[in-house]
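Data card: per-record layout.
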Amino acid sequence: MRRNSHSIAPSFVENIGRLDKLKIIGLDRVFLKLLVYFPLYDMRLDKLIASSTVFTRSQAKIIIRKGKVTVDGECIKNPAQHISEDAHVEYMGVSIKTPQLRYIMFNKPAGVVCANKDEQHATVFDSLFLPRIETLHIAGRLDIDTTGLVLISDDGQWLHRITSPKHQHQKIYLLELDEPVTEKQTRILENGVQLKGEKNRCQPAIIEIISDKQIRLTITEGKYHQVKRMMAAVGNHVTKLHREKIAQIELDSNLKEGEWRDLSQDEVILSKD
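The structure for this 273-residue chain is written out next.
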């Protein structure tokens, strides 16, 4: 079956060159021939549209069959058509670009849950209004009554690096307490407090005293309800909790509660250090 060169995925020769770059060796000749029919670097037209727009896969197939999609200026009515990386795709004159990884900062209000769906409460994703919302995930969830910085992305490796204790990324919280913080409580927190039900002590925390009942707490772990449990373990109680910073990413002071923005390239890169 003949395939138009402008819209098909990379050719056999191109794939061989890419295989060399990937240092894939020792492939059987029969398998190499299959690359002509099953290229390594391509995407079906309907999948591209569904992953780049608000259309579902079935809706994408419908608009393609109706002739509303062009590839490099040519109307394509086959949803299964494979598209090369550099093909120019348009829907009714509007360019459709290959989806890029997304990195988002959200200022979480109290009463909003860090979940994809919840039948009783609003979720952080309810405020985003973005396509492919199901591919986004949260780095470090906050309790329903905790406010502040939430990071969201569809880059799984980046999310893991942000949240993994191995990378020792700092998380900074502003706390309001039920009772004035004492020197003894501060000392225990700074030396590593033992939490109930945990085998090992917490890593030493950094404490900044702001006032009698307000402190700034810096930790590098992410245990379940860790900050509240730490304060309970030293005989105090958190009445208000707000996350200000994760790694090198600080909550934008211009963001109101419930608002979000994309991370800058510098923020994404710095957080990988």
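Known properties of this structure: Residues 143 and 225 are 8 Å apart (CA to CA). The mean pLDDT is 85.

See the next section for split statistics.
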